[in-house]
Known about the structure:
This protein is of the alpha/beta class. 41% of the residues lie in helices and 11% in strands. The strands form 2 sheets. A 5-stranded parallel β-sheet has the order 4-5-6-7-8. A 3-stranded parallel β-sheet has the order 1-2-3, with helices on both faces. Helix 7 links the parallel strand 5 and strand 6. Helix 3 (65-80) packs parallel to helix 4 (99-109). It starts with a strand and ends with a helix.
Amino acid sequence: xxxxxxxxxxxxxxxxxxxxxxxxxxxxxxxxxxxxxxxxxxxxxxxxxxxxxxxxxxxxxxxxxxxxxxxxxxxxxxxxxxxxxxxxxxxxxxxxxxxxxxxxxxxxxxxxxxxxxxxxxxxxxxxxxxxxxxxxxxxxxxxxxxxxxxxxxxxxxxxxxxxxxxxxxxxxxxxxxxxxxxxxxxxxxxxxxxxxxxxxxxxxxxxxxxxxxxxxxxxxxxxxxxxxxxxxxxxxxxxxxxxxxxxxxxxxxxxxxxxxxxxxxxxxxxxxxxxxxxx
Length: 279
Protein backbone atom coordinates (compact mmCIF):
# COMPACT_ATOMS: atom_id res chain seq x y z
CA UNK A 1 0.00 0.00 0.00
CA UNK A 2 1.15 3.52 -0.79
CA UNK A 3 -0.13 6.79 0.66
CA UNK A 4 0.17 9.29 -2.17
CA UNK A 5 -0.78 12.48 -0.31
CA UNK A 6 1.13 13.55 2.84
CA UNK A 7 2.26 17.03 3.88
CA UNK A 8 5.43 17.83 5.82
CA UNK A 9 6.61 21.21 7.06
CA UNK A 10 9.97 22.49 8.37
CA UNK A 11 9.92 23.03 12.14
CA UNK A 12 10.96 26.67 11.76
CA UNK A 13 7.77 27.41 9.80
CA UNK A 14 5.31 25.83 12.21
CA UNK A 15 5.00 28.44 14.94
CA UNK A 16 2.75 31.52 14.58
CA UNK A 17 4.88 34.50 13.75
CA UNK A 18 7.07 32.58 11.30
CA UNK A 19 7.02 33.61 7.62
CA UNK A 20 4.63 30.76 6.81
CA UNK A 21 1.88 32.47 8.78
CA UNK A 22 2.14 35.54 6.55
CA UNK A 23 0.72 33.37 3.75
CA UNK A 24 -3.05 34.05 3.87
CA UNK A 25 -4.10 30.57 2.73
CA UNK A 26 -1.79 28.85 5.20
CA UNK A 27 -2.99 31.06 8.06
CA UNK A 28 -6.66 30.40 7.32
CA UNK A 29 -6.17 26.64 7.01
CA UNK A 30 -4.27 26.45 10.31
CA UNK A 31 -6.28 28.95 12.36
CA UNK A 32 -7.32 26.38 14.97
CA UNK A 33 -6.17 25.80 18.51
CA UNK A 34 -4.30 22.67 17.45
CA UNK A 35 -2.81 23.08 13.96
CA UNK A 36 -1.42 19.86 12.54
CA UNK A 37 2.14 19.67 11.26
CA UNK A 38 4.31 16.68 10.45
CA UNK A 39 7.87 15.52 9.93
CA UNK A 40 8.91 12.44 8.00
CA UNK A 41 9.03 10.36 11.18
CA UNK A 42 5.38 11.27 11.88
CA UNK A 43 4.39 10.08 8.42
CA UNK A 44 6.22 6.80 9.02
CA UNK A 45 4.49 6.29 12.38
CA UNK A 46 1.05 6.84 10.85
CA UNK A 47 1.90 4.43 8.03
CA UNK A 48 2.97 1.75 10.49
CA UNK A 49 -0.42 1.93 12.25
CA UNK A 50 -2.10 0.36 9.22
CA UNK A 51 0.74 -1.42 7.43
CA UNK A 52 1.40 1.11 4.66
CA UNK A 53 4.81 0.54 3.11
CA UNK A 54 5.53 3.82 1.29
CA UNK A 55 4.31 7.41 1.27
CA UNK A 56 4.62 10.43 -0.99
CA UNK A 57 5.48 13.61 0.91
CA UNK A 58 5.55 17.27 -0.08
CA UNK A 59 5.31 20.67 1.55
CA UNK A 60 2.60 23.29 1.59
CA UNK A 61 1.44 25.16 -1.56
CA UNK A 62 2.84 28.52 -0.52
CA UNK A 63 2.61 31.45 -2.91
CA UNK A 64 6.08 32.73 -2.01
CA UNK A 65 8.95 31.06 -3.94
CA UNK A 66 11.30 31.45 -0.97
CA UNK A 67 8.99 29.48 1.32
CA UNK A 68 8.57 26.85 -1.39
CA UNK A 69 12.32 26.49 -1.78
CA UNK A 70 12.73 26.07 1.98
CA UNK A 71 9.96 23.47 2.06
CA UNK A 72 11.43 21.60 -0.89
CA UNK A 73 14.81 21.41 0.83
CA UNK A 74 13.13 20.02 3.94
CA UNK A 75 11.14 17.47 1.94
CA UNK A 76 14.32 16.24 0.28
CA UNK A 77 16.08 15.88 3.63
CA UNK A 78 13.14 13.92 5.08
CA UNK A 79 13.18 11.58 2.08
CA UNK A 80 16.86 10.87 2.68
CA UNK A 81 16.10 10.02 6.30
CA UNK A 82 13.08 7.86 5.49
CA UNK A 83 14.86 4.57 4.96
CA UNK A 84 13.62 4.25 1.39
CA UNK A 85 9.96 4.44 2.45
CA UNK A 86 9.37 8.10 1.57
CA UNK A 87 9.14 9.57 -1.91
CA UNK A 88 9.29 13.35 -2.24
CA UNK A 89 7.60 15.79 -4.56
CA UNK A 90 8.55 19.40 -5.20
CA UNK A 91 6.08 22.25 -4.89
CA UNK A 92 6.40 25.38 -7.02
CA UNK A 93 4.19 28.32 -7.89
CA UNK A 94 3.50 28.18 -11.65
CA UNK A 95 3.11 31.96 -11.75
CA UNK A 96 6.73 32.37 -10.60
CA UNK A 97 9.20 32.85 -13.45
CA UNK A 98 11.68 30.62 -11.65
CA UNK A 99 9.31 27.66 -11.31
CA UNK A 100 10.87 25.48 -14.02
CA UNK A 101 14.37 26.16 -12.69
CA UNK A 102 13.19 25.14 -9.22
CA UNK A 103 11.89 21.87 -10.64
CA UNK A 104 15.35 21.13 -12.05
CA UNK A 105 16.98 22.01 -8.73
CA UNK A 106 14.59 19.72 -6.87
CA UNK A 107 15.26 16.90 -9.30
CA UNK A 108 18.94 17.17 -8.40
CA UNK A 109 17.91 16.90 -4.73
CA UNK A 110 16.19 13.60 -5.43
CA UNK A 111 12.55 14.74 -5.61
CA UNK A 112 10.44 13.02 -8.27
CA UNK A 113 7.14 14.78 -8.82
CA UNK A 114 5.16 18.00 -8.47
CA UNK A 115 2.51 18.52 -5.83
CA UNK A 116 0.29 19.65 -4.36
CA UNK A 117 -0.45 22.62 -6.63
CA UNK A 118 -3.33 24.81 -5.45
CA UNK A 119 -4.60 27.68 -7.60
CA UNK A 120 -6.42 29.41 -4.73
CA UNK A 121 -3.49 29.19 -2.34
CA UNK A 122 -0.90 30.19 -4.93
CA UNK A 123 -2.83 32.78 -6.90
CA UNK A 124 -2.81 31.27 -10.38
CA UNK A 125 -5.74 30.50 -12.63
CA UNK A 126 -6.39 26.94 -13.86
CA UNK A 127 -6.05 28.04 -17.47
CA UNK A 128 -3.83 26.27 -19.99
CA UNK A 129 -1.16 28.78 -20.88
CA UNK A 130 1.58 30.95 -19.42
CA UNK A 131 3.46 29.72 -16.38
CA UNK A 132 1.14 26.81 -15.73
CA UNK A 133 1.70 25.47 -19.23
CA UNK A 134 5.47 25.86 -18.92
CA UNK A 135 5.51 24.13 -15.53
CA UNK A 136 3.39 21.16 -16.54
CA UNK A 137 5.13 20.72 -19.88
CA UNK A 138 8.42 20.58 -17.97
CA UNK A 139 6.93 17.86 -15.75
CA UNK A 140 5.89 15.90 -18.83
CA UNK A 141 9.42 16.12 -20.21
CA UNK A 142 10.86 15.05 -16.83
CA UNK A 143 8.37 12.17 -16.63
CA UNK A 144 7.10 13.54 -13.31
CA UNK A 145 3.64 12.86 -11.86
CA UNK A 146 1.62 15.91 -10.82
CA UNK A 147 -0.92 16.37 -8.02
CA UNK A 148 -3.41 19.24 -8.33
CA UNK A 149 -5.87 20.36 -5.67
CA UNK A 150 -9.54 20.25 -6.67
CA UNK A 151 -12.64 21.42 -4.82
CA UNK A 152 -16.25 20.25 -4.77
CA UNK A 153 -18.73 23.01 -5.78
CA UNK A 154 -21.42 22.15 -3.23
CA UNK A 155 -21.64 20.98 0.37
CA UNK A 156 -20.55 22.50 3.65
CA UNK A 157 -17.97 25.30 3.76
CA UNK A 158 -14.59 24.78 5.40
CA UNK A 159 -11.20 26.47 5.54
CA UNK A 160 -9.31 25.67 2.35
CA UNK A 161 -12.25 24.51 0.27
CA UNK A 162 -11.27 26.71 -2.67
CA UNK A 163 -12.72 27.35 -6.10
CA UNK A 164 -10.97 24.75 -8.28
CA UNK A 165 -14.29 23.11 -9.10
CA UNK A 166 -15.20 20.68 -11.90
CA UNK A 167 -16.41 23.57 -14.06
CA UNK A 168 -12.97 25.20 -13.92
CA UNK A 169 -11.23 21.86 -14.38
CA UNK A 170 -13.34 21.14 -17.45
CA UNK A 171 -12.13 24.29 -19.17
CA UNK A 172 -8.50 23.59 -18.31
CA UNK A 173 -8.00 19.86 -18.73
CA UNK A 174 -8.88 19.09 -22.38
CA UNK A 175 -6.28 21.44 -23.88
CA UNK A 176 -3.73 20.28 -21.28
CA UNK A 177 -4.18 16.61 -22.14
CA UNK A 178 -4.15 17.36 -25.86
CA UNK A 179 -0.83 19.20 -25.67
CA UNK A 180 0.77 17.17 -22.87
CA UNK A 181 -0.63 13.67 -23.51
CA UNK A 182 2.08 11.90 -21.49
CA UNK A 183 1.52 13.96 -18.34
CA UNK A 184 0.31 11.82 -15.42
CA UNK A 185 -2.07 14.14 -13.57
CA UNK A 186 -3.91 13.26 -10.36
CA UNK A 187 -6.71 15.49 -9.08
CA UNK A 188 -6.82 15.48 -5.28
CA UNK A 189 -10.00 15.02 -3.24
CA UNK A 190 -11.70 12.90 -5.93
CA UNK A 191 -11.26 15.77 -8.36
CA UNK A 192 -13.85 17.87 -6.57
CA UNK A 193 -16.46 15.41 -7.84
CA UNK A 194 -15.53 15.71 -11.52
CA UNK A 195 -15.66 11.94 -12.18
CA UNK A 196 -19.27 11.78 -10.96
CA UNK A 197 -20.23 13.56 -14.19
CA UNK A 198 -18.90 10.54 -16.10
CA UNK A 199 -22.39 9.53 -17.13
CA UNK A 200 -21.63 12.13 -19.84
CA UNK A 201 -19.50 10.31 -22.43
CA UNK A 202 -17.10 13.21 -22.96
CA UNK A 203 -16.43 13.49 -19.22
CA UNK A 204 -15.92 9.74 -18.93
CA UNK A 205 -13.39 9.86 -21.77
CA UNK A 206 -11.49 12.69 -20.07
CA UNK A 207 -11.49 11.03 -16.64
CA UNK A 208 -10.00 7.83 -18.02
CA UNK A 209 -6.87 9.89 -18.75
CA UNK A 210 -6.61 11.17 -15.17
CA UNK A 211 -6.15 9.83 -11.66
CA UNK A 212 -8.10 10.84 -8.54
CA UNK A 213 -6.99 10.53 -4.93
CA UNK A 214 -9.04 9.86 -1.82
CA UNK A 215 -7.61 12.70 0.30
CA UNK A 216 -10.03 13.96 2.97
CA UNK A 217 -13.03 11.94 1.73
CA UNK A 218 -14.11 10.93 5.29
CA UNK A 219 -14.82 14.66 5.81
CA UNK A 220 -16.76 14.95 2.56
CA UNK A 221 -18.47 11.71 1.48
CA UNK A 222 -20.21 8.65 2.83
CA UNK A 223 -18.64 5.22 2.60
CA UNK A 224 -20.53 4.39 -0.59
CA UNK A 225 -18.55 6.97 -2.58
CA UNK A 226 -15.68 4.72 -3.72
CA UNK A 227 -17.81 1.90 -5.18
CA UNK A 228 -19.79 4.56 -7.07
CA UNK A 229 -16.63 6.19 -8.38
CA UNK A 230 -15.03 2.93 -9.46
CA UNK A 231 -18.19 1.94 -11.33
CA UNK A 232 -17.76 5.10 -13.39
CA UNK A 233 -14.01 5.35 -14.06
CA UNK A 234 -12.55 1.99 -12.98
CA UNK A 235 -10.29 1.03 -10.10
CA UNK A 236 -7.11 1.86 -12.01
CA UNK A 237 -7.84 5.58 -11.74
CA UNK A 238 -8.27 5.79 -7.97
CA UNK A 239 -5.23 6.41 -5.75
CA UNK A 240 -5.07 6.27 -1.98
CA UNK A 241 -4.13 9.55 -0.33
CA UNK A 242 -4.74 10.40 3.31
CA UNK A 243 -3.92 14.15 3.40
CA UNK A 244 -1.88 13.39 6.52
CA UNK A 245 -1.54 15.07 9.01
CA UNK A 246 -5.05 16.45 8.43
CA UNK A 247 -6.26 12.84 8.59
CA UNK A 248 -4.45 9.67 9.61
CA UNK A 249 -4.59 6.76 7.16
CA UNK A 250 -6.51 4.76 9.77
CA UNK A 251 -9.49 7.13 9.32
CA UNK A 252 -10.11 5.59 5.89
CA UNK A 253 -10.80 2.09 7.17
CA UNK A 254 -14.59 2.21 6.70
CA UNK A 255 -14.30 3.66 3.19
CA UNK A 256 -11.86 0.97 2.11
CA UNK A 257 -13.93 -1.77 3.71
CA UNK A 258 -16.84 -0.69 1.50
CA UNK A 259 -14.74 -2.09 -1.35
CA UNK A 260 -13.77 -5.22 0.51
CA UNK A 261 -10.26 -3.77 0.80
CA UNK A 262 -8.15 -3.21 3.85
CA UNK A 263 -5.47 -0.53 3.97
CA UNK A 264 -3.17 -2.92 2.09
CA UNK A 265 -5.42 -3.21 -0.97
CA UNK A 266 -3.28 -4.37 -3.89
CA UNK A 267 -5.30 -2.62 -6.59
CA UNK A 268 -5.01 0.73 -4.81
CA UNK A 269 -1.26 0.32 -4.70
CA UNK A 270 -1.20 -0.62 -8.39
CA UNK A 271 -3.19 2.45 -9.43
CA UNK A 272 -1.02 4.74 -7.31
CA UNK A 273 2.11 3.23 -8.84
CA UNK A 274 0.70 3.77 -12.32
CA UNK A 275 0.24 7.46 -11.53
CA UNK A 276 3.72 7.72 -10.04
CA UNK A 277 5.16 5.98 -13.09
CA UNK A 278 6.74 3.09 -11.23
CA UNK A 279 6.69 -0.47 -12.61
